[in-house]
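Listing S7. Sequence submitted for prediction.
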Amino acid sequence: MTTVELQFPFTGTTLPSDHGYALYGALARIVPELHEASWAAIETVPGIASGDGVTYLDPQSRLKIRLPQERISLLLRLVGQRIEMDGHAIRLGNPQIKLLTPSPQLYARIVTIKGFTEPEPFQEAVNRKLQEMAIDGMPSVGPRRVVRVGDHKIVGFALVIHQLNDDASLLLQESGMGGRRRMGCGIFFPIAIDRVIGQPPQRVEKVSR
């Protein structure tokens, strides 16, 4: 089974800064198969947060969804659709289909692991997850981040995994880590250089957001 990444261009200027749950809900109303779809990972749309709960979108950004290649046709229903979220909206264009590419460093904006809301226990939980996946990598835990899922606030952390071989890098990009991958959590992207956690990530150009 080959995992690919659909990258949808869009028109629109703003979204709620914390829009992972709302985006998932809006997409699932158009593609009901996304409900409870463990095979899908939906990344939040990047932009510049204004500080008042609104993110201004970069017109060069893309909405990215990872899924098995054989399910691409399901997501093509999104083409041309207006996606509304809490008074904001984007309209999706025709996606590009990208293969995942390995990188020795991967970055996730937020990873959530149930029951682990403090940095040191969280890092221990990450180490166990890596061991379960037979991945030999060095985790670096970043800032605590909070996302809203319905009426609940969920605590997670930014995370970089260093020193990955190609197979491990692809596995981690395909499988992710932790929960709520349909809401933007636990999704890893290549970064160009080894970095100190807390600095803005530099993504590899061919998978740039």
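Caption to Listing S7: primary sequence and predicted structure tokens for the chain studied. The chain has a mean pLDDT of 91. The first strand starts at residue 3 and ends at 8.
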